[in-house]
Each structure stands twice: as C-alpha cells, then as structure tokens.
Design goal:
By secondary structure, this protein is of the alpha+beta class. Helices cover about 30% and strands about 30% of the residues. Helix 3 packs antiparallel against helix 4.
Length: about 170
C-alpha cells in the first residue's frame, strides 16, 4: 500500500480481485477496497495475499500505465493507469486511476462522466483529463513535489494515458 508503488494503481484500474487467506479461511477483496490508508491495507493481521486475478483485455480494449519517476528512487511521484473499451468508435467504458498523488489510488470519476458514450478525440480526452485534479482530495506534498504539482502531473499523465489507451483499443478491433 505504498502510494509510490506502481501495482496498486494498475490493479485498481484493471478491477483486480484479490484473494487473501488466513486462520478464518479465504476471502476476496476488490482492489479498489483493499488500499485503505498510507501503507495500510484491508488485510487482517493473520492474513496473507494468496491470489490476484485480472481479466484479460478483449476486443476494442486498451490500457496504459505512465508515471513521473522520482529521480532518486525511481518510484512514482505520480502514476496514472487508464483502461478503456470502445465499440463503433464510441467509448463504452473507461477507468482512470491516479496513484502517488494521495495516500491511496484514486479513481477519477469525472473522466468517466466526460468520455462515456462519446467518440474519443483530442478535445474530449483533454476535457476529461482536466477533470482529474478534482478527484484528488488532499494531494501529498513533500520536498520533491507539492500537492499542486502532483495534481498537475496527474492531469498531464492522464491526457497521455487516455490517448494511448484509445489508440491501443482501436488496434484491437
């Protein structure tokens, strides 16, 4: 549950299912619900992660993960994962998740509101990306990057990730 780690952001974007095992048996947790705070997951003290499942991408789907790396650690200052599906050149589903900017990965729901049912274009992608920062409550600040800078990076990376995801989805027809 390190906010600078890549996999939480990607797992939430792909709607991964996570199975944990413990003394009370097994249970399944949605990736969107497993990360609860800074370095904190939903796992109980006697549980371990035993399985991660992710659906394969189908026809008309595309995904991208981009990040701005911290120069010293190479961990994400901000990472953005996008997963889209198109049919007849219209956006049928979209998930854009931002990691590193807040204590847990954040699903940018404003992106869905702009893109669903629309033809992906430079303008609609740009408008959608401009909605990303509103999903980031209390962005993290440190010596390297302020919260405002992280919100700006999230917007820039969202624009790029969405454009690339739609390009990849177009190729999967």
């Amino acid at each position: 549950a390190d906010p600078a780690s890549d996999y939480p952001t990607v797992m939430v974007a792909l709607e991964a299912g996570i199975t944990v095992a413990g003394s009370r048996g097994k249970r399944r947790i949605a990736a969107e619900e497993i990360f609860v705070d800074l370095f904190t997951t939903e796992l109980k003290s006697d549980e371990i992660l035993s399985e991660v499942s992710v659906s394969t991408m189908g026809k008309g789907e595309g995904g991208t993960y981009l990040k701005h790396r911290h120069p010293a650690s190479r961990y994400a200052v901000v990472g953005v994962a996008a997963h889209v599906a198109i049919k007849n050149n219209v956006c049928k589903s979209v998930r854009l998740v931002v990691g590193g900017a807040t204590v847990v990965p954040v699903l940018a729901r404003g992106v869905e509101e702009v893109l669903l049912g629309e033809k992906p274009s430079v303008n609609t992608i740009s408008t959608a990306a401009d909605r990303v920062a509103e999903s980031l409550e209390s962005p993290l600040s440190d010596l390297y990057a302020s919260g405002e800078y992280r919100a700006h990076l999230a917007t820039v990376l969202a624009r790029r990730a969405l454009a690339e995801s739609f390009r990849r989805a177009q190729k999967q027809k």
